[in-house]
Design a protein that fits this description.
homodimer; alpha/beta; about 375 residues; 12 helices; DNA-binding; five-stranded mixed beta sheet
DNA sequence: AAAAATTTAGCAACAGCGTTGCGTAATAGG
DNA sequence: CCTATTACGCAACGCTGTTGCTAAATTTTT
C-alpha cells in the first residue's frame, strides 16, 4: 500500500504482492500455481520467487512429481519471517495482538486503560505491551511495525486523531508521529471498522470481492472493502452506518437526527428484545446491499457476538427474503472468525500490507 | 480501463492516461505542468508527449516565454481527434450524444422507442441514430465506440442485460455482443447511474474524490465514484438507493419491503408536497454521507431537475445541518451540469476511458 | 538397458519503461 | 558579445517482464 509513481518499481511491488497473495492463500504452491493466478510468464515468476526466497519470505518445501517429467519445486510461506503488532484502542481497554506474515494471531493480550486516558498514557501502555509481546531482540528485528485501530473521527492519511468519541484528551492528536517517535517503530493509524474489514479480507483472500464488516459494540459501525481495497471515504470517516436514518419519525439520537439505526436498535436492546434488535440491524444491512451490492457481509463486535446466532439468522433471512434477489445476486453472510481480535489483527495486517501488499499508485 | 497484466505496457498506459487527464483538465499545458501533476521526470513526460502528439491526440499550441530562458512549448488537447457515441436507453426514449475527446457534447438527439421495445428494435434505432450522427466517413474513422447507459439489472463485465425493469423482452440479452456485431463498433454497457457519475467525474477532474450522483427519474438511483473509479458492486447492481428503508413502518413498496426511500418520496410527490419530497431525499443523501463519507453529491434526473432549486436547497441544508459535520468534513452539493445528457454522455466517456483512461490491473 | 517423451527450471538476449547525465537551443540582461 | 537562465532531448543505464533456447529430471516406450 505504499504510494509510488508508476515506474518499473511499481511493477516489482505489484507482481511480488500477487505472489505473496498466492503464498498466503495456499498452504503450499509451485511456480505453475502462480503462473495460473497471475498470467505472468513462468520465467517472470521464477525471478519473483528467487527474490522472495532470498528475503526469507518463502522457502522451498519439497517437490511434487507430476507423474512424468521433472518434479516441480513446491514452495511455502515462512510465516514467522515477519511480524506486525496490532492495537485495538477502545474506550476502556487496549488489545494487542502479534500477527505473523500468514495472518495468524500468535499472541493476544488485553489491558485496561484509565478512564479518559491521555495520549501519554496510551503510549506508555503501548510501549510496555509491545515489550512483553515482542521482547526478544530476535523477534524485534522481524517486526515491521505497529498498526492502530481506533474509534474516529481520525485522519488516516496524516495519522491524526481528530476527535475520538467520548475521550476528552483526544482532539487533533498527531498519534502516528508521536507513537513512531516514542516506540521507534513504523506506525499505521486507521478507524477500527476499516482495520476490521482488512482482517476479513486477509482471511477470505481474493474471493472477498466487495464486502462490509458490520460491528455492533458501543455503537454501530461498518467497514467497507470495495474494489480490492479498504474504502475510507473522502475524510476517513466512512462507516458511520449506525447514524443512518431508518425511521423517519423515530426517536432522537445523540447525533442530532431522528430514527438512526443505532438508536432504534438500542431501544430494542434495552427492551430486552434481541430478536427485534437483530431485525432492525438486518434492515440496515439490506440497505447497504441495495446501495453497494456487496458479495460478503461479516458480522462482528462484542455486543453482536454475544447473540451471534440471533443476529446471523436475522441478517441471513433478511438478505435472502428480498424477493428481487435472484440467484445471480448472491450475498454471503458470515460471523467474524477472529472474534474480539478482529480489529487489532486487521490493524497489524495493514502494516504487513504496506510492505508486502499491492502498492498504491498516486491518484489520477 | 482495459484490463492488463502488470508489465511495462501498463506503465505506458497509466502515465499516458495521466497526461491525458492533465490535457483534458487544462485548456493548455506544458511539460512542466505535467511534471508537477505526475511526479515523472521531464524526460519521461517528453516521451509521452511525443507519442500523444504523433497520435494526434494533442498538438503544440504556441510557446510561453518564462521571462528569461528558452520558451516552453505549450500543448493543447485536440478535442475532435477522437469521438465516442453515448446512448441513454430509457423505457420510452433513446437519447444519443456525440462526445469528443475533451468530453464536450457535440450533438444530442432524442428519439422515441416503441412501447415494450425488443432488442431488435433498439438495435435498429441505434443504427439509424448513429448513422445520422456520425454520417461522414471522416468522422466515423475517429469513432472509438458506443457506450450504452441503461436501467438494470445488468452484467457490466459480460455486457449482458439481465432483466431491465419494466421491459418484457429484456431477459438475459447479450446486448454488447449483438450490438457489436450489428453496428460494427466496440460497445460498452453499463447501468445508467454509473454512466452518469462517470460524466460528472470527467467534468470535475481529479478533484472529484469520493462522490455520488443521485438520480430521480422514474425511480431513485445513485451512481458511485469511489477511489478514482466507478463502483458497480459485486454484480453490477450497486445504486438501488431508492430501495433503502428510511421508514421502518412505512408504506409497502413494489420491491416488497416497507418504507423505502422511493415510495415515501413518491407519496410526498403525489401529495404535491415537493418540499417534503426533497427533504425525504435529503435524509437518504445524508445516510449515504454517513456511510460512505463522500466529498461530492451531484443531483440529477428529469423529475428532480424540474424542481432543482427545491432539491438543491433541501439537500444542501441537510448536509450542512448535521451537527457533527465539522469543517474538515465538507461535502459539496451540485446540480448536474449536463442536464438530460448526463447519462448518455457518461456512457460515451466510458468508451473514451477504455482507450485513453487509466488501465485497470487484473484484481488480486 | 537405452532411447524417447514429457515436464520443469533457468540462462541469455531483448524490447520497453522511466531515470540520469549531459550537451544544445533559445531567450533576457548586462 | 558574454553570461545566466530556462527548456529540450539524445544517449546510456538500470530495471521490468518476455522470448528463445538449452539443460535437468523424471516416466514411458522400445
Amino acid at each position: 500500500m505504499t504510494r509510488v509513481t508508476a515506474d518499473v518499481g511499481f511493477l516489482r511491488g505489484y507482481n511480488q504482492a500477487r505472489v505473496m497473495a498466492v503464498a498466503r492463500a495456499a498452504r503450499t504452491f509451485e511456480r505453475s500455481t502462480v503462473v495460473a493466478a497471475t498470467g505472468l510468464t513462468p520465467q517472470a515468476v521464477s525471478k519473483v520467487i528467487a527474490r522472495l526466497t532470498a528475503d526469507g519470505l518463502i522457502r522451498p518445501a519439497g517437490v511434487r512429481r507430476p507423474g512424468i517429467g521433472k518434479p516441480a519445486v513446491v514452495y511455502a510461506l515462512v510465516p514467522d519471517s515477519r511480524y506486525a503488532i496490532g492495537a485495538h484502542v477502545a474506550r476502556r481497554t487496549l488489545r494487542l495482538v502479534l500477527v505473523d506474515l500468514a495472518g495468524t494471531v500468535r499472541h493476544s493480550a488485553v489491558s485496561p486503560l484509565p478512564r479518559d486516558f491521555t495520549p501519554e498514557q496510551l503510549l506508555d501502555a503501548l510501549a510496555t505491551g509491545i515489550d512483553t509481546m515482542a521482547g526478544t531482540a530476535d523477534l524485534r528485528s522481524r517486526l515491521t511495525g505497529l498498526g492502530i485501530g481506533m474509534i474516529g473521527p481520525l485522519d488516516h492519511a496524516n495519522g491524526l486523531v481528530r476527535d475520538a468519541h467520548g475521550l476528552r484528551h483526544w482532539h487533533d492528536v498527531p498519534l502516528r508521529e508521536i507513537a513512531e517517535k516514542h516506540l521507534a517503530l513504523p506506525v499505521h493509524l486507521d478507524k477500527d471498522v476499516t482495520a476490521g474489514v482488512t482482517a476479513e479480507a486477509w482471511r477470505h483472500g481474493a474471493t472477498f470481492g466487495d464486502a462490509a464488516l458490520i460491528m455492533v459494540e458501543s455503537g454501530i459501525g461498518a467497514g467497507f472493502w470495495l474494489g480490492g481495497t479498504a474504502h475510507r471515504g473522502a475524510h476517513t470517516n466512512a462507516g458511520e452506518f449506525g447514524h443512518t436514518v431508518v425511521a423517519l419519525d423515530g426517536p432522537g439520537c445523540v447525533c442530532g437526527r431522528h430514527g438512526c439505526l443505532e438508536i432504534v436498535h438500542h431501544h430494542a436492546t434495552e427492551a430486552g428484545d434481541t430478536a427485534r434488535a437483530a431485525r432492525v440491524l438486518a434492515v440496515g444491512v439490506v440497505n447497504l446491499l441495495q446501495t453497494l451490492d456487496l458479495a460478503h457481509v461479516v458480522l462482528a463486535g462484542a455486543d453482536l457476538l454475544r447473540h451471534s446466532q440471533t443476529y446471523l439468522t436475522a441478517v441471513t433471512e433478511a438478505v435472502g427474503a428480498d424477493a428481487r434477489r435472484a440467484d445471480w445476486l448472491r450475498t454471503r453472510v458470515w460471523l467474524s472468525g477472529l472474534g474480539a481480535d478482529a480489529i487489532a489483527a486487521g490493524a497489524a495486517m495493514q502494516v504487513l500490507d504496506q510492505h508486502y501488499g499491492i502498492p498504491e499508485l498516486a491518484p489520477i
